[in-house]
């Protein structure tokens, strides 16, 4: 039950990431048309595309991990016995969970600090920093949980579903 709920959260975050990729394509095209055909470039398109790239990365990463879609060195893995592959997958999953857990905590602290301080992103559009930065701890938390799920599957001797 909880696993299915988490899978739905991952799917929803992947859908948002995909929508943001479409948004970036459309706004980039719009900016090019406005700039070269009407000599009226937008001020906001590049800024929001930069923010969207950050969101796409952090919202899509855990979903990709759940599908074992991240880059691996298959030639090394395939040369190992199945028991060694299992052990290596457990170790890398624990290391990934640890690194993402640390990044979650640090990202949460920094995002909270910029929220409390009222820090602003001064670009062509002026917005608070915390809405842009909040995706880092959120995405890192999803990755941490997915790495722990991955560890659990491999400890039990199963491949990822």
Descriptive keywords:
161 residues; mainly alpha; two-stranded antiparallel ribbon
Describe the structure.
There is one protein chain. The protein has one domain (2-155). It has a two-stranded antiparallel sheet. The protein has 161 residues and is mainly α. The protein contains six helices and two strands; from the N terminus they run ααααββαα.
Mean pLDDT level: 93
Largest sheet: 2 strands, antiparallel
- Strand segment tally: 2
The span between the termini is 15 Å
Whole-angstrom Rg: 19 Å
Helix/strand structural class? mainly alpha
**Domain module tally:** 1
Q: Give the SSE order as H and E letters.
A: HHHHEEHH
Low-confidence stretches: none
The number of helical segments is 6
Note the overall shape: elongated
Order of strands in the sheet with the most strands? 1-2
Residues in helices, as a percent range: over 70%
The share of residues in extended strands comes to under 5%
């Amino acid at each position: 039950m909880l696993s299915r709920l988490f899978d739905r959260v991952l799917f929803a975050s992947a859908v948002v990431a995909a929508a943001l990729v479409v948004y970036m394509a459309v706004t980039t095209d719009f900016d090019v048309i406005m700039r070269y055909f009407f000599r009226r470039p937008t001020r906001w398109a590049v800024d929001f595309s930069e923010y969207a790239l950050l969101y796409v990365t952090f919202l899509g990463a855990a979903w990709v991990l759940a599908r074992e879609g991240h880059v691996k060195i298959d030639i090394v893995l395939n040369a190992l016995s199945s028991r060694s592959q299992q052990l290596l997958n457990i170790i890398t999953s624990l290391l990934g969970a640890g690194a993402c857990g640390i990044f979650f905590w640090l990202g949460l602290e920094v995002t909270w600090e910029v929220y409390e301080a009222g820090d602003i992103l001064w670009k062509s559009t002026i917005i608070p920093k915390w809405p842009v930065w909040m995706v880092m701890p959120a995405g890192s938390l999803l990755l941490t949980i997915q790495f722990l799920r991955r560890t659990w599957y491999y400890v039990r001797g199963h491949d990822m579903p």
